[in-house]
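Figure 2 data, in text form.
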Amino acid sequence: MNWDKARRLMRLGRCEDQSRRPTRSFGPGGHLDPSSDVLADVRARSICVVSGKGGTGKSLVTASLASLAARRRRTLVVDGDLGVGNAHILQNVSPEHSFAEVVDGVCQVHEIVTPCRENLDLLGAGSGYAKLAGLSTYELHMIACGIEKLELTYDTLLLDSAAGISEQTVSFAAAADLVLIVTTPDVTAMTDAYAFLKVLIQRRPTAQPLLVVNRAADLEEASGAASRLLEVSQKFLGREPRWIGTLPEDRAAFRSVQRRSPVVEYEPESDLALALIDLAATVDEELYRTAPRGLGRMLLRHVTSAGAARLQVKRATS
């Protein structure tokens, strides 16, 4: 089966008419005018792109989804791989400031925004900052507060998360409106994807995660990998992610990374880029079925409740 036919089979529909969405007023510099009307509290719809294992192409997927979203609406990429972030590479920018300065109290979150291209901005995670890998409740609270304010000025927010199941990574994912799990047919990648799914559902039982199989040789291989993961998830968790797409193994991915550009921009006619365009349409459909909760707002609630719980435990044992 060729990829043209595979794309037709996997296609699940287009995004709803976005003209039906509430209209917001933006002032100078493209920022939301908070005095415009009561819709000023409408927040960006958020999607967290995750993988239990590194090397699955998570950042490549995030960069392309962000680039495609920015063609129609204001989009913000949040690099959630704190301390070893590399989301800026695929946008070909070098952030002057990152979350490291926010944690140090040097900058506020809105001051570390890095423009990438029209309608697309980035919050850099910083690279080489070990302390960012294990933030305190107060530090995570600062980041959550900053995102909570900033998300009012965007329509779409994509979070490129860290691999693994750390407390920070799962907290970001649980706070997002949607979670997209990126795996490959590799057994270790699928095992780690299942581990992430298990922890996510424990944290947020109402989560309805999506699944994409990347670097597949053909649709048959992707279908086999997805079926195995869905079967195991249903058997042991009583839940399963929804498989929404397949991305082919394509050297265009390597070339685009070398050129520091999303593959949908660098090689838009490649099999991978065309599959990503289809994936973006499906993600849009899913995203606009979901009422935006606000990534920063939900993260802030989690941090506050988690901090209160730890304080109660400390008092009870002291």
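Caption note: The beta strands are 45-50, 75-80, 113-117, 120-123, 156-161, 178-183, 210-216, 242-248.
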